[in-house]
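Why this split exists: single-chain examples teach little about how molecules sit against one another. For that reason, every record in the complexes split bundles all components of an assembly together and asks for one structure covering all of them. Below is a record exactly as it appears in the raw files.
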Amino acid sequence: MSVLIVGSTALDSIKTPHAENPRLLGGSASHAAVAASFFSPVKLVGVVGEDFPKKYVQLYRKHRIDLEGLQILPGKTFHWSGEYELNMNNRRTLLTELGVFETFTPTLPKAHQNIPYVLLANIAPSLQSHVLNQMQRPKFVIADTMDLWLNIALADLLKLIPRLDAFVLNDSEAHQLTKEDNVFAALKKVHKLGPKYVIIKKGSHGSILSGPRGFFICPAFPLHKVKDPTGAGDSFVGGLIGYLETARGSIDQNIRRAMIYGSVVASFC
Amino acid sequence: MSVLIVGSTALDSIKTPHAENPRLLGGSASHAAVAASFFSPVKLVGVVGEDFPKKYVQLYRKHRIDLEGLQILPGKTFHWSGEYELNMNNRRTLLTELGVFETFTPTLPKAHQNIPYVLLANIAPSLQSHVLNQMQRPKFVIADTMDLWLNIALADLLKLIPRLDAFVLNDSEAHQLTKEDNVFAALKKVHKLGPKYVIIKKGSHGSILSGPRGFFICPAFPLHKVKDPTGAGDSFVGGLIGYLETARGSIDQNIRRAMIYGSVVASFC
């Protein structure tokens, strides 16, 4: 068994109050795949350009991540550049270069289509649906998103959400999607779109699961110094699905514990 | 046994996006005393003016709150008026009329001086110290505060803090006091001032206890609609000390459970 993870694979140039680093390994699928690999074998689906550093391919390999679904295309790897404010909660995008991502439409290898656990990490919702269309009867499908898609691809996202077992978003995205200030009222509205489980990420304030057994309020791991929060949310979801894949028993028996593991892995990110 | 609670007893005129209500029962000691009364007998120490409505005295009595320490003086009851923004996290003060509070210096009845559990609810730190000076060997002393005292009475507050078993403040006050952005770094600095337990209130994000056994991260009770958050923090601390007073075993064995009870009582406030 293993976990299929599709999402962005990127190079991030990040400036924080503590440091400035160019062309770090980034992208939702990179963070999620590394996080999930601590629990389960991972098959990564994504695209990079010919400029993608070999050391990052080696890093994936070190984590035993299956790269059959990682396309290497002529052109440049998706590049994002951003800057964090002092409190680490606010960031602004300085630069976005799509590169080979602009024309990416993943075709899954045959062996990938029967994987039971699927993470549609943050990427355009049309691509998330495109991947899901190729899957045979997955057991558990979870998707993450970001404010960008709520702004420019809401219709695509609303087509995807009813097909999910679990949907993950952060508190401001939940507010944007539902127009509800209260997070519990927002959760109720997101459930009406279809997913059995809805998880709201609140950064250093932790996360909230809403499901058939009610709420589960999960703390973030207590960190005394946050150097760079990029990818923490992706790592959380990656750790979560990686643990779920290995755990015995039903999703409902394990998803709360999976959130705790996700939080711990995210703290290392 | 019982709990001694000193703090403000006031009339609050509050405007929220949902309603506007004049001269509600308010004040840190009022909220804390009612909350604690669900667990333990309470002795209230405070001051009101001759205009204090009888129905509020009856409300205290209904909760079997001992009013021997509640002075009724010629003049007006402390009156606060404030307005909440839509998200309920930000409020601004419209009016503060100190009234009889301006010259209040509580002298404790003899029977009050031996009470083992003491809550110094939010009030000027010089008055909190004045009350503490009159107590014989209390078993557990917990104090709350507010940004106002950090601004205008920091020296008094810094004299009080080392005398406390537990100190309660909210996240922005912790930042103001320690100059630390990270809440766990702030907690470490507050411990250095003396208290064995430090509790940081984070409103709808819950609260964090730091003590000899490490951290305890406590969620807020999930509310779908918040009508008026005034007094929720006071109710939390009131419920906490009320439960501690009745629980068997050591403070350290019970303080985590006490925070859960405090959160639940605060949700009713």
